Amino acid sequence: MTLLHTYTAMPVASDRIAKMEFLELTGIDEKELMELIHMEWISPIVTAQDEWLFLVRDVPRVRKYVRICDDFELSPIAGTIIVDLLHRIATLERRIQELDALAAL
């Protein structure tokens, strides 16, 4: 006799996606992806089945990288530096807004 386990809960949402989906969502090819991994700008995890999983939050980051590199004809390293600096600026602007809100109290 085979016992089946029935689960009524939904599967746990993941913050990771497979390599093919990542490539499709970002619009980069495998060669570009390997370059970003080699630069350690993106760090996938590798499953026991040798599948690469990428963070969903890296998708908009890579899209921004692609746009900047394409629009300004930049090298990959220059593109990653600019995206990182833009992220830093946005973080600092949010922090300033938070501090301004606290000062207004």
Question: What topology emerges from the helices and strands here?
Answer:
Elements (H helix, E strand, L loop, with lengths): L15 E3 H8 L3 H9 L6 E2 L5 E4 L2 H15 L3 H28 L2
Antiparallel strand pairs: 1-3, 2-3
Helix pairs in contact: 3-4
Explain the overall architecture.
Helix content is 57%, strand content 9%. It has 4 helices and 3 strands; from the N terminus they run βααββαα. Helix 3 packs across helix 4. The chain has one domain: Multidrug-efflux Transporter Regulator, Chain: A, Domain 2 (Orthogonal Bundle). The longest helix has 28 residues. A 3-stranded antiparallel sheet has the order 1-3-2. It is mainly alpha-helical and 105 residues long. A hairpin with a 5-residue loop joins strand 2 and strand 3.
Question: Low-confidence stretches at least 5 residues in length (pLDDT < 50)?
Answer: none
CA-based shape: flat
Tally of structural domains: 1
Element order: H for helix, E for strand? EHHEEHH
**Largest beta-sheet details:** 3 strands, antiparallel
Strand content: 5-15%
Approximate helicity band: 55-70%
What fold name stands as the CATH topology? Multidrug-efflux Transporter Regulator, Chain: A, Domain 2
Q: CATH architecture, please?
A: Orthogonal Bundle
User: How far is the first residue's CA from the last residue's CA?
Assistant: 68 Å
Number of β-strand runs = 3
Strand-pairing-aware structural class: mainly alpha
The CATH class label is Mainly Alpha
Arithmetic mean of pLDDT: 92
